[in-house]
Specification:
The complex is a heterodimer of chains A (115) and B (112).
Chain A: E1 5-7, E2 10-13, E3 19-24, E4 31-37, E5 44-50, E6 53-57, E7 64-68, E8 74-78, E9 87-94, E10 105-106, E11 110-114
Parallel strand pairs in A: 2-11
Antiparallel strand pairs in A: 1-3, 3-8, 4-5, 4-9, 5-6, 7-8, 9-10, 9-11
Chain B: E1 4-6, E2 9-13, E3 18-23, E4 30-36, E5 43-49, E6 54-56, E7 60-65, E8 70-75, E9 84-91, E10 101-102, E11 106-111
Parallel strand pairs in B: 2-11
Antiparallel strand pairs in B: 1-3, 3-8, 4-5, 4-9, 5-6, 7-8, 9-10, 9-11
Classes of the chains: A mainly beta (115), B mainly beta (112).
């Protein structure tokens, strides 16, 4: 049973460019959340997708957008990249339809470097 | 509201005990604990719910003081495999659909 898979594992971009990160949730999971983890910090919630819609959003600008597909996989898009967007981007999934007490299964992340 | 974890780092010898604390300025519904090893994904350890219910790891225990909005993770008779960074994640309401606020982590290093 595959867990949460993310691609690519590493990415280097320059300021102003746009990037798309991809995530496939654990089998049987319908909810995908994205987190940004800066070096030495805890994960910061970006947003969550359920039933192909954004259900929750953290304090991130509109440059961060996402999408969920009918097969529950998800994409995170970041436009107009800034140096401060350099971080590990984690995808987490859970069978969160009920919305409560669900442990998260994390992918290994995409390390984004903005030069 | 991001919870505050303490200590920031701990160095132990195998067999020693450690306590990691997580404190929030907001009332909490649940606290989750995760461990992340270098270069790997965070892995679930424990859920503690308002009202006392716990779900999680057999060899790791935790407490949740709802009135003080605090949780503590107890690592007893530590093993080398316990090394990693421990994060607490907090939920402020019951139907927050797992929108967590994570602390900045406690780095645990267990030496032989």
């Amino acid at each position: 049973d595959a867990g949460v898979t993310q691609s690519p594992t590493h990415l280097i971009k320059t300021r102003g460019q746009q990037v798309t990160l991809r995530c496939s949730p654990k089998s049987g999971h319908d909810t995908v959340s994205w987190y940004q983890q800066a070096l030495g910090q805890g994960p910061q919630f970006i947003f969550q997708y359920y039933e192909e819609e954004e259900r929750q959003r953290g304090n991130f600008p509109d440059r961060f957008s996402g999408h969920q597909f009918p097969n529950y996989s998800s994409e995170l898009n970041v436009n107009a990249l800034l140096l401060g967007d350099s971080a590990l981007y984690l995808c987490a999934s859970n069978g969160g339809g009920s919305g409560t007490n669900e442990k998260l299964f994390f992918g290994s992340g995409t390390q984004l470097s903005v030069l | 509201q991001q919870p505050v974890q303490s200590p920031q780092a701990v160095i132990l010898r195998e067999g020693e005990d450690a306590v990691i604390n997580c404190s929030s300025s907001k009332a909490l519904y649940s606290v989750h604990w995760y461990r992340q090893k270098h270069g790997e994904a965070p892995v679930f350890l424990m859920i503690l719910l308002k009202g006392g219910e716990q779900k999680g790891h057999e060899k790791i225990s935790a407490s949740f003081n709802e009135k003080k909005q605090q949780s503590s993770l107890y690592l007893t008779a530590s093993q080398l495999s316990y090394s990693g960074t421990y994060f607490c994640g907090t939920e402020e309401t019951r139907y927050n659909f797992n929108k967590f606020y994570f602390g900045s982590g406690t780095k645990l290093n267990v030496k032989p």
